[in-house]
Structures
1.
Amino acid sequence: MDIGTIAVIGGDERFAILASLLAQDGHTVFGAGFDIKPELADGVVLTDPLTAALMAQSVILPLPPTSDGIKLSAPLSYEDVPLDERLCLALERSRVYCGMPHRLAAVSERYGKLQCRDYSTQESFLLLNAQLTVEAALMLAIKHLPVSLFGTRCLVTGYGRIGRAMALALRSLGAEVTIAARREEHFAHAKTLGLGCCTYAALPACVEQYRLVVNCADALVLSSDVIAAMDSDALIIDLASLPGGTDFAFVRERGITALHALGLPGKYAPLSAAQIIKDTVTAMIEEEFH
């Protein structure tokens, strides 16, 4: 199906690859912000961000679109891509597909008026991206732990899509897994799978027994009182978006290893991550064309 001209502006390696995958599908694709690794965007018309936005009917922006509210996330660009009024005006002419669009809306009143379609909340994206995140997190755990995951006591805080997939993956490797959550239905679900359960309030009393703690909750659940009770040899992998769910300042005081593992799919499986975004956004565009 012809879904018109597409622009991919900014983002990490997965977005350069995304642009190339769209071009391979026969679409006319403009790309911007990939000048450090242009070879990843094979088949794409590379230009500047403003031109790309003006030439396209649909524009795909990164996940997240910005980390500082001033410039677009564009780690593959030699130059900053400012989120200025000129770029906003160009984006107003197109359908904009963006991950975490609230961050873009916070840039200015004008950016807040953009009609952004959020691909990062689509169920297909969430489920598949969660699996990539879990695989990468397991790799980090194996790399940084001096012991095998088999038989190791592990705690997963948060029981959403990523937390659930993380708990199941750890258990499949023979780890003893407990989940911490708030909702009774999460505890009920975990119990049917043979997982241990713990409330957040009870963490200070029981957290010492866990060698690996994986946080998947977008809240400060690994607070100073929890960290104070942890074993000094424990490993924390925090998968929550900024600012995370860990008191990182107190972790440093305790000398506990804590990894704030952001954007794992794009770092460890960029081709698979790009394919997930492509399939999700293409389906969204096709739905609008109908």
2.
Amino acid sequence: MDLLLYKKFKLERQIKNSNIKLNYAALGPAIVFRGSDKFSINDVSQVFKVPKKAVANEIDKVTHIQKPRSKNAGKFLKLITD
């Protein structure tokens, strides 16, 4: 549980000054899904009572924030998080 909270707070620090809009209700299930190989998107969406589509959208956003597609995107994220 502590590790999941740490990941959530770290992600929130990374996006603090950006204009990225997050669905915080779906962010928790997205972090749980990404942090575990045991659960499917259906499982986490049912447990947290969040639509599957919302969880999938947040998973995509988290992936793009943590692993930018290009070097320029990585530089931009580094500038806004420092």
3.
Amino acid sequence: MGKPTGFLDYTRVDCPSRDAAARTGDYAPVELPLSERNRRRQSGRCMDCGVPFCQAGASFEGVLLGCPLHNLIPEWNDLLWNGDHEGALQRLLKTSPFPEFTGRVCPALCEKACVCGRISQPVTIRDNERTIIDYAFENDLIQPMPPAARSDKRIAVVGSGPAGLSAAYYLNRRGHHVTVFEKDPLPGGLLTYGIPEMKLPKQIVARRIALMEREGVEFRTNCHVGQQPGADELAAQFDLVIFCCGAQQPRQLPFAGAGGVFYALDYLRASAQSLLEKTDSAVTAAGKQVVLVGAGDSASDCISVALRQGCRSITQLIRKPRTEQTEKRDHAHEEAEAIFGADIRRYETQIESLTCGKDGAVRAVTLQGSGEQLPCDLLLLASGFSGCEPASLEAYDAVRKTGVPVLTAGDMASGASLVVLAIAGGKQAAAQADASLMGYTNIL
């Protein structure tokens, strides 16, 4: 423990955010880094608890507390406090394959379990993690590490989101031949097409994909498994298949299908594609009066993207009542308030019906109970997800019928959840696959 009194000497300092109104003019990251001195102080706040619940990843009464990857948090906090970035990196990579992702988009379950938070504010664990991995990439400490020897086993991973990448990462490290199939033009799944640029820059995802390729993982894009390649072809070429296709089927709402009405992920995907391909977005909020249904992370992402596209107005409809939990503001709400001068959220409010023009496109929404009408050119539905997409389930069934061993991982197995849980699920599937093929596993 580098600073025994650190939690008494220093208060928590979060990364400063760029001006809320100014940052809606671009897709650059919202947060700015702390100075090295202040970051070391933040790592020095770690108490090195006798029982570090931050790394437990345990469930108590249905609530998950601590890191699902069981990151060695007190160890790398101590090393970061002492200025040993290389040592901190080694301890971080011991348990976490993609800290550049989780250090940006994880809800920091570790901080919710931090003992320091019982007496003051929890340690800035997620920001410390991001600092370690960013320093490593910036100083060429991350280099390809292909396995020293290869097995004769060939494994297909269907889907290149966080679970698929995790499974591929560990199986490749084990020495197996791994091929990842992705239906989209670029690998990364949700990381590439679902999370906005300002939260997770696509260059960071592409950098990790390129590193995995140099380590021996093969990526095949624009592949719809079950069709091309077909199930029999896949079974003939591989000893085992792991499906990591996510749970992106939206929960159906009755007014979906009208013109100008889109599910959140479709809208976010269109935005991501336009930025990646440097073309106009197929769906844009530019100049439109936007109504958003939902209150989760996808809803907040829609708000941030709509503001950056230049929406004329935006109103968020939340079914739940106003409580301390639902009233919490995130970066998106700060931005909306900075642009429009008021909180855009309306609680205990649902849509009763739509008013559409002669072209079939939405023009207004009528609110349930009050009959109030809100002008609306673009209606976004962040209504959650009901499970895996039908095409992915059909592909899974087709491959399973061939007799080749098949596993599932990530959201496809658990339902829509967190990136960090998908990474953990991918690792578990990799260990199961390895044990099945080799009789034992050292993926722990």
4.
Amino acid sequence: MGIIRSVIGAASGSVSSMLNDQFLEVIEPYEMGEGTVMTKGVAVRKNSNKGTKDVISNGSTIHVYDNQFMMLVDGGKVVDYTAEPGYYTVSDSSQPSMFNGQFGEALKDTFTRFKYGGTTPTSQKVYYINLQEIKGIRFGTRNAVNYFDTFYNAELFLRAHGTYSIKITDPIKFYMEACPRNAAQVEITEINEQYLSEFMEALQAAINQMSADGTRISFVTSKARELGKYMADILDDDWTQMRGMQVQSVGIASISYDEESQKLINMRNQGAMMGDPSIREGYVQSAIAQGLQNAGSNANGSMAGFMGMGMGMNAAGGFMNQASQTNMMQMQMNQQTAASQPQQAAAGWTCSCGTVNTGKFCLECGKAKPAAAGWTCSCGAVNKGKFCSECGKAKPAGEPLYKCDKCGWEPEDPHHPPKFCPECGDVFDDQDVIG
């Protein structure tokens, strides 16, 4: 038993008349929504005189549409299939045709594993597998995932939520391994419990790997795309081989910390800020200013407020003044340390890439230090005047140096000036030769 591709076009009227005369079935897929992975074929025109259930008459027509994979099943086994849209006629005398469509010859290997090899079966059904991307499958961590952050030196916890999508890449394997038997229609939500558990295991493994790689927990949200790709790669190996489907994409909508982790992060960040004496001093001054403001708005009068503030300051033993003095001393020490460091920019040279260097080559791009403009004396010194500044030798003849006699502008290469001065527009001629 198999299917033969039909040509239904101009002769559709005669085919319709033939179907009416012979009471054959016309089979189409049942409603297939965005989350439907499999649905049964239903007869649009059914022979009312035939009492045998689930027996498809020889010569019946099966409709197959875009992004659908049709399987002809006899006795629970797939005997023929097609992945190409069109109209197909059921023929008891034909061999399986196996129209592979987008799947190529590789699909025949799966068909060979699951095909029916017995006598004429007693139950014949048509099933359709959805080949579109099944989107919007929700996931979320029920419990916070542990994440050791080396920057905070603490065991933190985070939660992740989002959606992922799958695509069926081997419809026959998916039908045999993932779909419940005798089901008329299967939604992804009905079979997703096991897959979701495996998905969350991959998510936790990916998050733990990022922790082991030393990624700060605050950077995890910016790596959501990398996290999704990592999970897709891990799951594809198992899901494609076992069930004939693969993860198409992963979208992580949010990654958040649990309450205790957020407190620890805030405390660590606040401590880091208070390590800066200028920030501490600003905090001290703002606290004093706030105290003065509160004293001035005291309900019993500003005098009572200021008296109370003075008593509080005395009771604190001048803590605020002492803290302020400590902050000022530390800031002065920092300034002295910075001033004592060598100023490389003043003594160095600036590369074309913008980096300031002191050596012969740029630390950023590796370019050599440009040669100084002027003429080079036999002693190695570079000069611009008529005599060497190191040994006093006169500049060799035939190497004139130019300088604008109008505004004093000097070209980068005194030996080869431009035709006109870029500052005043004067022509460079013999009057501009300085040596």
